[in-house]
């Protein structure tokens, strides 16, 4: 058997289906010959076969279908009534076509054959009924038809006596139906399968867990097999729910064309990766966000043609939409070669709309500035267009994507273009989660939000809780991470934060915070069931699940937690746990920064730029060692030289009563600067000239840490130890 | 001609309550309840009913009765609210009782307003009053703050010395 290519196979499958419909319609038409809907349906089916056959150069098929279509056209216009003659010829046409299709399937080409008679019959019926040619084939019932030229609905039809005429094919009952390689399954059945597979996963979890606690080799073996089979079943069912993303992408070129026309842009949309598979339920969730991103790209991204030309770009803008699998997730990237996102303008608008204050913006890096577009109430559109609306865009996109466990990121180069990347998990239903215990209950943290788990330790600098304005924080990968107590958010009794406490670092909306829990249990694959409406709307829970031991646990909504606790709070309702003092507004309009204010004894104070500080430590006099005549401190695995700040800044020697060590890193080596006390972390204005910063209305000496350490280091390490 | 109704009965803090049998799916023995922080006050939590997660409502709380003792093992009366199953926590479950529909009475005013809100009426039985639960009202109430009312005495439906009018 010749292998036919996929397109032809699809043509065949569809045509078989169409012919089934034709047969069905014809049978119904015999009882209801005037039915307009049946006639239309019949016409459409034949018309489709004609069209696609022509596309593939199946000329015999096309010719037969075309002639039949001509007849049906007359019927549709009321110029030819359906009578048994017409029905019979059309049924024969259907059989003929079917035979041809079978041959194509087996051999890749149309069979040779003489359709003269059939075509003549079809043509004759378009004209004078009496001109129908005599039949010669045995069992051909054209005789019956010609005996009753006038159409009478009362004539009992006898479709069962039909026999096909063309000698090149066998009777309809004997034509081997090509087995279709796909079947159509109703969505409900697929959903049911998924539900059952999910339930099985839960039971499997329970059995596996129980199995671990008993010594039963029979159970062991079966539990093992159950585990393997369930995993594969789960994966296979998930696969059955996968649909090509092309099904939603294919509508985009038309949408792009319409939006571009409305905005006066020239745009070309290129799609890549349309065959990328996505879970059916996720397709719904990402459809609107993608549409919105496309509108944004055309409306705000691509410049009008004149602007583009004067910028040296082609007048037609290019938007590329690429879908692919990577890292166990579905990635969708939309890249445009438009004007890009201008961080300065973003900041301007954000400040204007009260989303952020100037001093807070000064602390943000360029990529963080761009991410301001995700905040509610933001839109840099000069005029609100009917399409992209008023700032409804990016925050809604992000919310919707995050709701299904995905992420949205933006990268942009001013003048060159913007790339928005959506990442969504392969499936919604089952997700891995970390089970924690807090306030007497167990809670699941979705792995997607999980970054790390830290056990608090006073001795280990990297696991030490600091307090900024009375709020606990941890340094995590170079950033201050606010810590909140899960029990307290749940309004239960909370234990004080102590040595060994467990902090689960989570991330959502690009920001991290830590959740203090009592215990971290294990990771489980959980099926998240939605919470009913009567459980309140605290926003803290994404749903509930049944754990391996049969107990119900609540699944945390990390975003809701972050907002309710204030750990993610921006400048709206709740104040964030970590807040930096807002000093007086900058006078000279110079950039404002955060400074660490240190006391050197007496009233003396100096400031260091917070960005140059790695850690703050308390100085334990007993921990100071003297090596080679210099005072040092053990810092992790390193020996850290200690320097008296007051000495360094020329205020005379320290009195040795310094209690704070400011750790700064220079060229990879830590240095400990001893100060009397850490007074504050404040905002101030960078000095116009080196040496002093305006902090709390006092000119305060600013220590240039890098310069200081640089000269000291060359002294220090130039000496052989 | 009298029509008879079948009511599934159960007791809650001494009160005998009934629900039309067609509305009760099943009764399930006590099982562990997972509390849901910040949920409305009468929501006791969630239970695992053969893999399905079902909300359990504390009937004592809902009817402003005395709370369950700490070591209580309440039964789960499973009803359906149109979307999902819901469990109503009761002390103990009784028999299915057949009543004459014509003996239906409005809920006596001797019961506190907090309880009357969730009762549809009563049937007079030989052994006492069988109060009919308004299942829908019980399930859909979303009070967050517990209502403070003097506890009703078990079985005593005379003029309630302790029943105070609900302060608004």
Tell me the strand order in the biggest sheet of chain A.
10-14-15-13-12-11
Q: Shape of chain A, please?
A: elongated
Number of helices of chain A: 20
Query: Could you list the spans of chain B in which at least 5 consecutive residues all have pLDDT below 50?
Result: 147-168
* End-to-end C-alpha gap of chain B: 44 Å
Query: What's the count of strands of chain B?
Result: 11
| Quaternary structure state of the chains depicted | heterodimer
Radius of gyration of chain A: 38 Å
Mean pLDDT of chain B: 82
Provide the structure class of chain A: alpha+beta
Task: List the helices and strands of chain B in order.
Answer: EEEEEHEEEEHEEH
Distance between the termini of chain A: 83 Å
Gist?
The complex is a heterodimer of chains A (721) and B (168). Chain A is an alpha+beta fold. Chain A is 36% helix and 26% strand.
Note down, in words, how this protein is organized.
The complex is a heterodimer of chains A (721) and B (168). Chain A contains 20 helices and 29 strands. With 721 residues, chain A is α+β, with helices and mostly antiparallel strands. In chain A, the strands form six sheets. Chain A has a six-stranded mixed β-sheet with strand order 10-14-15-13-12-11. In chain A, a hairpin with a 2-residue loop joins strand 22 and strand 23. In chain B, strand 10 and strand 11 form a beta hairpin. Chain B is globular, with a radius of gyration of 15 Å. At the A-B interface, helix 7, strand 17 and strand 18 of A face strand 4 of B.
């Amino acid at each position: 058997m010749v292998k036919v290519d996929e397109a032809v196979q699809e043509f065949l499958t569809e045509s078989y289906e169409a012919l089934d419909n034709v047969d069905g319609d014809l049978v119904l038409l015999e009882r209801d010959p005037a039915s307009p809907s049946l006639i239309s349906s019949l016409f459409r089916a034949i018309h489709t076969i004609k069209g696609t056959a022509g596309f593939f150069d199946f000329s015999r098929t096309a010719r037969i279908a075309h002639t039949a279509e001509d007849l049906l056209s007359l019927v549709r216009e009321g110029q030819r009534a359906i009578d048994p003659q017409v029905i019979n010829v059309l049924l024969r046409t259907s059989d003929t076509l079917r035979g041809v299709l079978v041959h194509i399937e087996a051999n890749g080409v149309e069979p040779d054959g003489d359709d003269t008679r059939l075509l003549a019959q079809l043509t004759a019926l378009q004209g004078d009924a009496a001109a129908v040619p005599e039949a010669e084939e045995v069992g051909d019932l054209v005789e019956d038809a010609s005996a009753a030229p006038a159409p009478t609905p009362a004539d009992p039809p006898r479709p069962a006596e039909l026999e096909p005429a063309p000698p090149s094919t066998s009777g309809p009952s004997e034509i081997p139906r090509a087995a279709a390689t796909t079947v159509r399954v109703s969505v409900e059945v697929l959903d049911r399968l998924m539900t059952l597979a999910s339930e099985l996963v839960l039971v499997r979890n329970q059995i596996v867990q129980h199995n671990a606690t008993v010594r039963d080799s029979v159970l062991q073996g079966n539990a093992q097999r159950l585990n393997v089979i369930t995993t594969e079943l789960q994966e296979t069912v998930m696969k059955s729910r996968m649909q090509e993303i092309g099904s939603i992408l294919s509508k985009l070129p038309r949408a792009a064309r319409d939006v571009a026309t409305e905005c006066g842009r020239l745009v070309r949309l290129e799609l890549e990766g349309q065959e990328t598979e996505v879970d059916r339920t996720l397709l719904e969730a990402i459809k609107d966000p993608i549409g919105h991103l496309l509108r944004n790209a055309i409306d705000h991204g691509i410049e009008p043609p004149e602007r583009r030309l004067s910028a040296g770009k082609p007048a037609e803008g290019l938007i590329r939409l690429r879908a692919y699998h990577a890292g166990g997730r579905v990635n969708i990237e939309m890249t445009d070669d438009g004007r890009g996102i201008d961080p300065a303008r973003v900041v301007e608008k954000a400040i204007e709309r009260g989303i952020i204050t100037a001093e807070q913006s000064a602390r943000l890096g360029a990529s963080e500035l761009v991410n301001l577009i995700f905040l509610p109430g933001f839109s840099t559109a000069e005029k609100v267009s009917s399409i992209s609306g008023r700032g409804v865009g990016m925050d809604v996109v992000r919310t919707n994507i995050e709701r299904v466990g995905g992420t949205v990121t933006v990268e942009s180069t001013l003048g060159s273009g913007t790339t928005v990347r959506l990442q969504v998990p392969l499936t919604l239903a089952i997700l891995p989660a970390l089970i924690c215990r807090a306030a007497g209950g167990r809670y699941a943290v979705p792995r997607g939000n999980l970054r790390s788990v830290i056990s608090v330790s006073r001795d280990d600098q990297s696991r030490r809780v600091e307090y900024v304005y009375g709020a606990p924080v941890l340094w995590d990968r170079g950033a201050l991470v606010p810590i909140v107590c899960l029990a307290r958010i749940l309004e239960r009794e909370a234990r004080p934060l102590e040595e060994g406490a467990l902090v689960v670092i989570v991330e959502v909306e690009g920001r991290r915070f830590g959740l203090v829990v009592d215990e971290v249990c294990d990771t489980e694959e959980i099926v998240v069931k939605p919470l009913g409406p009567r459980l309140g709307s605290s926003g803290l829970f994404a749903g509930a699940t049944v754990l391996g031991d049969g107990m119900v646990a609540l699944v945390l909504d990390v975003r809701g937690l972050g907002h309710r606790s204030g750990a993610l709070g921006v400048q709206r309702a709740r104040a964030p746990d970590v807040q930096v003092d807002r000093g007086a507004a900058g006078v000279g309009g110079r950039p404002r920064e955060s400074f660490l204010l240190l006391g050197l004894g007496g009233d003396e104070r100096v400031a260091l730029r917070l960005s140059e500080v790695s850690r703050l430590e308390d100085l334990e006099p007993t921990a100071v060692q003297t090596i080679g005549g210099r005072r040092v401190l053990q810092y992790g695995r390193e020996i850290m030289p200690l320097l008296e700040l007051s000495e360094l800044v020329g205020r005379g020697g320290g009195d040795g009563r310094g209690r704070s060590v400011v750790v700064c890193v220079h060229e990879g080596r830590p240095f400990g600067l001893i100060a009397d006390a850490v007074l504050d972390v404040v905002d101030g204005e960078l000095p116009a000239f080196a040496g002093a910063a305006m902090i709390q209305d006092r000119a305060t000496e600013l220590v240039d840490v890098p310069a200081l350490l640089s000269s000291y280091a060359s002294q220090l390490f130039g000496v052989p130890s | 001609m009298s029509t008879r109704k079948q009511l599934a009965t159960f007791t809650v803090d001494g009160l005998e309550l009934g629900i039309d049998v067609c509305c009760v799916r099943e009764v399930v023995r006590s099982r562990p309840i997972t509390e849901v922080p910040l949920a409305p006050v009468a929501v006791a939590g969630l239970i695992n009913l053969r893999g399905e997660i079902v909300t359990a409502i504390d009937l004592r709380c809902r009817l402003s009765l005395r709370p369950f003792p700490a070591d209580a093992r309440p039964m789960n009366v499973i009803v359906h609210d149109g979307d999902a199953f819901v469990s109503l926590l009761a002390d103990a479950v009784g028999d299915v009782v057949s009543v004459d529909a014509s003996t239906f009475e409005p809920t006596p005013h001797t019961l506190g307003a907090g309880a009357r809100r969730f009762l549809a009426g009563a049937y007079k039985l030989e052994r006492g009053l069988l109060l009919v639960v308004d299942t829908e009202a019980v399930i859909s109430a979303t009070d967050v703050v517990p209502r403070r009312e003097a506890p009703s005495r078990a079985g005593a439906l005379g003029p309630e010395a302790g029943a105070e009018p609900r302060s608004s």
